[in-house]
Amino acid sequence: MSGQAKALIFDLDGVVVFTDKYHYLGWKKLADENGWSFDEEFNNNLRGVSRMKSLELMLEHNGLDLPEDEKNRLADRKNEYYKELLQRINESDLYPGAVGFVKKVRERGLKTALASSSKNAQAVLVALDLEPLFDAVVTGNDITLSKPDPEIFLLAAKKLGMKPEDCVVFEDAGSGVEAAHRAGMRAVGVGPVETVGAAEIVMQDYAELDLENVLSGA
Ligand code: BG6
Ligand code: MG
To answer: Which ligand is nearest the CA of 117, by number?
Structure first.
């Protein structure tokens, strides 16, 4: 980090909106239907991870190896469950304080980007009218490599016209914190130390977060 950060990049699921809960419920339904072992602790490994990679991790966890067409069918099925849950999404699903924090950041003249591995991210942004909060949006449709690969954050920085070292990433996923670091960016971990402890700052409450510390890396 060369000095004061000039841009903040936010993950979506579990950072701005509690859609991480709906991803979990989608996988849980699929797991229960198939008699697979799956719980919230294992689900933490799936945060930030693409749909297909998540399915493969679940299968591996259960000692299973399935043909490609069957994996595609199962991944599609989970996505149907997730999209059903999204139909009910509303403002009560927003992470408390997140929208106010992003607005404060923008009022200070900083750039903001949204970087989500989800191919459903745009639909969530539209449903909750969050698009105006971000100067750039990168979703699972724009990348080929899942977090912890840094591709998504490097693309977000590029879209913002920023150098990686001038960006700070907000993430609820261990894989996302790793991706930020591999991109040459600092990270604010949103959630428990067990999951995002590798981040420079760890927090769970936007109201308690000191923006100056985020920007300076203090
Ligand atoms: C990430 C979530 O944001 O998006 C993961 O943390 C999810 O849980 C991934 O698997 C991909 O989402 P989608 O909507 O493309 O299946
Ligand atoms: Mg997330």
So the answer is: 1
Helix locations, the chain, DSSP H:
19-34, 40-43, 51-61, 68-86, 98-107, 121-127, 151-160, 174-182, 193-196, 211-216
CATH class name, domain 7-18+92-216: alpha beta
pLDDT at 2: 55
| Residue with CA at minimum distance from ligand 1 atom 13 | 118
pLDDT band of residue 218 (cuts 50, 70, 90) is low
- What is residue 121's predicted lDDT score, i.e. its pLDDT? 98
Domain spans of the chain, in order of start: 7-18+92-216, 20-86
Express each pLDDT in 11-50 by its tens digit. 999 999 999 999 999 999 999 999 999 999 999 999 999 9
For residue 172, which atom of ligand 1 is closest to its CA? 6
- Architecture of the 20-86 domain: Orthogonal Bundle (1.10)
Q: Residue with the nearest Cα to atom 8 of ligand 1?
A: 47
